[in-house]
Design a protein that fits this description.
Elements: E1 2-9, E2 22-26, H1 34-44, H2 49-68, E3 73-75, E4 79-87, H3 98-101, E5 102-111, E6 114-115, E7 122-123, E8 131-134
Parallel strand pairs: 1-8
Antiparallel strand pairs: 1-2, 3-4, 4-5, 6-7
Helix pairs in contact: 1-2
Length: 158
């Protein structure tokens, strides 16, 4: 199991500390669909693919509804999903108009983290066993997926 990466040079002149430096960026080679996920779960347990798929589809509906009710969804071992709102600012509270100033709604995800007893260091259980490897130059990659703000995953200064 290896997470593939490619190197790129930061050309954002606004971030002077990072400008010109080389960074690794994770790349993907495939999209794992609900059908494929359900088939894999079926192989690892006693449930049928159709049952797993039905549970996943229902989970998506329930999550959408509960996030829409301003609830946090926690999938133990995976992470938490939070509703997110992006808005433009106003000078006064009276000027704020939700239909005009709220420009985007979305979902924020925070993966589950655990603290190692004794050392106090923190890790993400889902990333245990991952290795990184540079992507081959001829790897065909799907179009990059932009986040909900229409921005890519630009690195921050380490």
């Amino acid at each position: 199991m290896s997470v593939l990466y490619r190197l790129y040079q930061n050309n954002n002149k606004k971030n002077t500390k990072a400008y010109g430096k080389w960074y690794a960026k994770a790349v993907t080679t495939n999209v794992y669909s609900t059908d494929e996920l359900a088939l894999e779960v079926q192989r690892n347990c006693s449930m049928k693919k159709s049952d797993v798929k039905a549970v996943i589809e229902e989970l998506c509906e329930v999550m959408a509804r509960e996030l829409g009710n301003s609830h946090v969804i926690e999938l133990v071992g995976v992470g938490r999903f939070y509703p997110k709102v992006k808005s433009t600012g106003t000078v006064t509270v009276r000027e704020f108009n939700p239909s005009k100033n709220i420009v985007h709604t979305g979902i924020r995800f925070t993966p589950t983290k655990k603290r190692v007893t004794g050392t106090g260091s923190i890790y993400m259980p889902m990333t245990q066993g991952w290795h990184v490897q540079e992507a081959p130059k001829n790897t065909v990659l799907p179009e990059p997926i932009e986040d909900e703000d229409g921005e890519g995953d630009d690195p921050q200064e380490p």
